[in-house]
C-alpha cells in the first residue's frame, strides 16, 4: 500500500494531460497538490469511523475489501490520462484519490487491529515489524515507479501496483484467519478516546512526526539542489530516512515491549527530530553553511526519531486507552488504529502545506524552525504530563509484556480485576492492598 502511494507521488508530476489543458505552472501545481492533499485529509477524516465496521463485518472482511478498493482505484488513476475533457479529468482525479483514501484508511485500521489481536503479548514488536514493510514500501515505491515509467510511460506503474494490491487481496482472503467479532456493541467511541489525556498526547506525537516527514518530502529536493547531485545519488538521499526508520523500528518495539517507558521514548524521538532540523538546515544560528554530510546525518536522525515516536505512540495509546476504561478487544484495537492513522494523515497534510508557504516566504533554514517549534511543544507537553503523573500509571495486564509479571514490578497493586499498577495514571480504578497483588502472581 505504501509503495503504491509513493508511486503516485513519483509519477504524478507529469501525467498524460488532456489535449488543450493549460500548462500554466500555478494551475498545474494547484490541481496536482489539491489531489494529493484531498487524499491525505480524507484518510484523516475517515479513519476514526472504521473501527465500528470491525464490529459489523469483521476485521478480515474490512481489510480484504479495503485492499480491493485501493487496487481498483490505483488502476483507475492510471487510466484517467485517456480522458480528453478538462472537467472530467480533474473531477475524476479527486474522486479516485478520495476512494483510494477510503481503502487506505480502512486497510491500515484493520491491519493494525488484527496485529494487536493476534499478538497481544508483543504488540509493540509486531507493530514495529510491520513498519519495516512500511519503510520498504516508502523506499521501493519511487524506484519501481521510475523504472515502470521509463519503460512504458504513465500507465504501467499504476497497472502493475494496482494489480499487486488485487493479488494481495486474494492472499488475505485465503490465508488470513478470521477474528471473532464482539457479541455486544463496543462501548469505545472516538470522542471518549479523546478524553483520555495520554491518548490525546500520543496522537499529537504521531502528527508531529508526520509533519516533519511531510515537510522534508516537499522541500528537501530544492534545498539540496545546489549540490548538483546525479539522479541516482538524489534518489539515495531520499531513502535515507525511510531506511533508517525501517531498520530501527523493531529495536524500538522490543524496548517498548520490555521495560522502556514508551512516553520517554517519544521524548527521545522529539529530541532527534529537533537535532535533525538543526543539521539539515542547518539552523540559522549555526555559524556554518549547508553541507551534504550534515544533511545525511540529519536524515538519519529524522528516521530514528520517526521510529521512536510512531512506534512508541501506538503502543502507549493502546495501553492508555484500555487503562482508561476501554474494553481490551479487537474493536478497541481498531479504534486505536484508526486514531493513529487519522493523526498520521493529518500531519501528512499539514507538513507539505506549511512547508510550501514557509519555504517560499523565508527559505528552508528559517522555515524548518516550524518543525522545531512543534517538537518543542510536544516535548514540553509530554514532560509536564510525566511530571504530573509520575507516581501512578496503570496498564492492563493483557498489554504488559510477560516478563513484567515474572519480575514482580514494584510498587504493585491490583486495580479492580484485570489491572496492574506501576508508574503512570489510572482512570476511575479502585486500589487494593499490595499483598493481593503479590498473592495473585
TrEMBL record:
SUPFAM superfamilies: MFS general substrate transporter. It is found in: Membrane. It comes from the Eukaryota. One of its GO terms (cellular component) is membrane. Keywords: Membrane, Neurotransmitter transport, Transmembrane, Transmembrane helix, Transport. The chain crosses the membrane at residues 26-50, 62-83, 95-120, 132-152, 158-176, 196-217, 229-252, 264-286, 292-318, 330-346, 366-387. It holds the Pfam family MFS_1. GO terms for molecular function: transmembrane transporter activity. Residues 1-392 form the Major facilitator superfamily (MFS) profile domain. The keyword Repeat does not apply. It is a multi-pass membrane protein. The keyword Ligase does not apply. Belongs to the major facilitator superfamily. Vesicular transporter family. This is Major facilitator superfamily (MFS) profile domain-containing protein. It comes from Polyplax serrata. The lineage of its organism: Eukaryota, Metazoa, Ecdysozoa, Arthropoda, Hexapoda.
Amino acid at each position: 500500500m505504501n509503495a503504491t502511494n509513493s508511486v503516485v507521488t513519483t509519477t504524478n508530476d507529469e501525467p498524460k494531460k488532456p489535449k488543450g489543458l493549460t500548462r500554466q505552472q500555478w494551475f498545474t501545481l494547484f490541481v496536482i497538490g489539491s489531489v494529493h492533499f484531498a487524499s491525505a485529509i480524507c484518510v484523516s477524516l475517515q479513519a476514526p469511523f472504521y473501527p465500528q465496521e470491525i464490529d459489523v463485518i469483521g476485521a478480515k472482511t474490512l481489510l480484504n475489501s479495503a485492499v480491493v478498493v485501493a487496487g481498483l482505484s490505483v488502476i483507475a488513476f492510471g487510466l484517467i490520462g485517456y480522458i480528453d475533457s478538462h472537467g472530467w479529468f480533474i473531477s475524476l482525479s479527486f474522486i479516485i484519490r478520495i476512494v483510494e483514501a477510503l481503502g487506505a484508511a480502512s486497510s491500515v485500521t484493520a491491519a493494525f487491529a488484527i496485529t494487536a489481536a493476534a499478538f497481544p503479548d508483543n504488540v509493540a514488536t509486531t507493530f514495529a515489524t510491520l513498519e519495516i514493510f512500511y519503510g520498504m514500501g516508502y523506499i521501493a515505491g519511487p524506484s519501481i515507479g521510475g523504472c515502470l515509467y521509463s519503460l512504458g510511460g504513465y500507465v504501467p506503474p499504476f497497472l502493475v501496483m494496482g494489480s499487486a494490491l488485487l493479488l494481495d487481496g486474494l492472499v488475505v482472503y485465503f490465508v488470513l484467519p478470521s477474528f471473532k467479532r464482539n457479541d455486544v456493541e463496543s462501548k469505545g467511541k472516538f470522542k471518549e478516546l479523546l478524553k483520555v489525556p495520554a491518548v490525546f498526547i500520543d496522537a499529537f506525537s504521531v502528527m508531529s512526526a508526520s509533519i516533519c516527514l511531510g515537510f522534508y518530502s516537499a522541500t528537501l529536493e530544492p534545498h539540496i539542489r545546489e549540490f548538483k547531485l546525479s539522479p541516482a545519488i538524489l534518489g539515495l538521499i531520499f531513502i535515507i530516512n525511510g531506511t533508517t526508520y525501517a531498520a530501527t523500528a523493531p529495536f524500538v518495539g522490543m524496548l517498548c515491549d520490555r521495560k522502556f517507558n514508551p512516553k520517554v521514548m517519544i521524548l527521545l524521538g522529539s529530541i532527534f527530530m529537533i537535532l535533525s532540523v538543526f543539521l539539515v538546515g542547518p539552523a540559522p544560528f549555526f555559524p556554518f553553511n549547508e553541507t551534504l554530510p550534515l544533511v545525511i546525518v540529519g536524515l538519519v536522525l529524522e528516521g530514528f526519531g520517526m521510529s521512536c515516536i510512531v512506534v512508541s505512540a501506538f503502543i502507549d495509546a493502546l495501553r492508555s486507552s484500555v487503562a482508561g476504561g476501554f474494553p481490551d478487544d479487537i474493536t478497541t484495537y481498531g479504534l486505536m488504529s484508526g486514531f493513529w492513522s487519522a493523526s498520521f494523515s493529518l500531519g501528512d497534510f499539514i507538513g507539505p502545506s506549511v512547508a510550501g508557504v514557509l519555504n517560499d516566504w523565508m527559505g528552508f533554514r528559517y522555515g524548518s524552525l516550524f518543525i522545531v517549534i512543534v517538537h518543542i511543544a510536544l516535548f514540553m507537553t509530554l514532560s509536564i504530563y510525566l511530571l504530573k503523573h509520575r507516581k501512578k500509571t496503570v496498564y492492563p495486564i493483557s498489554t504488559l509484556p510477560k516478563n513484567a509479571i515474572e519480575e514482580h514490578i514494584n510498587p504493585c497493586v491490583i486495580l479492580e480485576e484485570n489491572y496492574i499498577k506501576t508508574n503512570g495514571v489510572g482512570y476511575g480504578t479502585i486500589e487494593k492492598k499490595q499483598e493481593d497483588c503479590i498473592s495473585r502472581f
